Amino acid sequence: MGTRYFTPTLFAFLRDLSKHNERAWFKANQDAYERHVREPALAFVNDFAPHLARISPHFVADSRKVGGSLFRIQRDTRFARDKTPYKENTGLQFRHVRGKDVHAPGFYLNLEPGACFMGIGLWRPESKTAQAIRLHIHEHPVEWRRASHSPRFTEVFTITGDSLKRAPRGFDDDHPHIADLKRKDFIASTRLTQGQVVSDHFMEDFATNCRLAAPFMRFLCDAVDVPF
Question: What is the pLDDT of residues 165-192, one digit of tens each?
Fold first, then answer.
């Protein structure tokens, strides 16, 4: 048997938070947040580190309370219409070591009542980076198909995100990979059930999905010139 990191209490806390998204309620229930959300999430990050290192030494599982792989629960409301102070999900991101310097792909885990999923790839890269990925797809079509359209990959992951309405600069509408070349986001995701997340084999399941995603992540790393 493996370790059970997350419990239904995490989802119960997030459901309650969505009903009482205010500072006074959160302060009164902060101990529950620490015990049922932050501490299990940080334990998961810490224990995932050796799995991640075997996939690639260039991604980071950082279990610090602040500034690590666990996103802050507090929302940045400075420029937002929605002024509710707290996020109603728990987000974990395993960034590339170059992620603070350049646009680089990452692994992501979202825990939220009714909306758990795992994500991979590179969301909304700047124009220069997006163009580099498109050019890499154009120059290495076989590798791209193997990484992103093989049955083994598509049985688990679905490529998603927004796309351009027209062919990007330098490419024709009849390009065999025009649908992929139009992408603004180079991401894929897989839905997770609450039952999967609270099981004692979730760590191995998550690591297995990350290993399955390795060719996709390697392709993106090569495209943006960072090591995999």
Answer: 999 999 999 999 999 999 999 999 999 9
CA 107 to chain centre: 4
Task: Summarize pLDDT for 133-164 with one digit per residue, the tens.
Answer: 999 999 999 999 999 999 999 999 999 999 99
Distance in angstroms (rounded) separating the CA atoms of residues 213 and 118: 11
Q: Do 110 and 97 form a contact (C-beta atoms < 8 A)?
A: no
CATH classification of the domain holding 129: 3.30.930.20
Q: How open is the CA angle 155-48-125, to the nearest 5 degrees?
A: 60
- 25/208 Cα distance (integer angstroms): 38
Q: What are the structure tokens assigned to 60, written together?
A: 């980071």
Q: Report pLDDT for 203.
A: 98
Closest CA to 118 of 203, 30, 201: 203
In sequence order, what DSSP letters do the residues of 100-111 get, joined into one string? TTS---EEEEEE
Residue 228 lies in a domain: no
Paired with 111 in beta bridges are: 90
pTM of the predicted structure, to 2 decimals: 0.94
Amino acid type, 191: R
Q: Is the separation of the CB atoms in 5 and 37 below 8 Å?
A: no
* Rounded Cα distance, 126 and 141, in Å: 22
How many folded domains does the chain comprise? 1
Q: Other C-beta atoms within 10 Å of 192: how many?
A: 19
The rounded distance, in Å, linking the Cα atoms of 143 and 139 is 9
Dist CA 206 CA 223 (whole Å): 25
Rounded-to-integer distance, Cα 76 and Cα 67, Å? 15
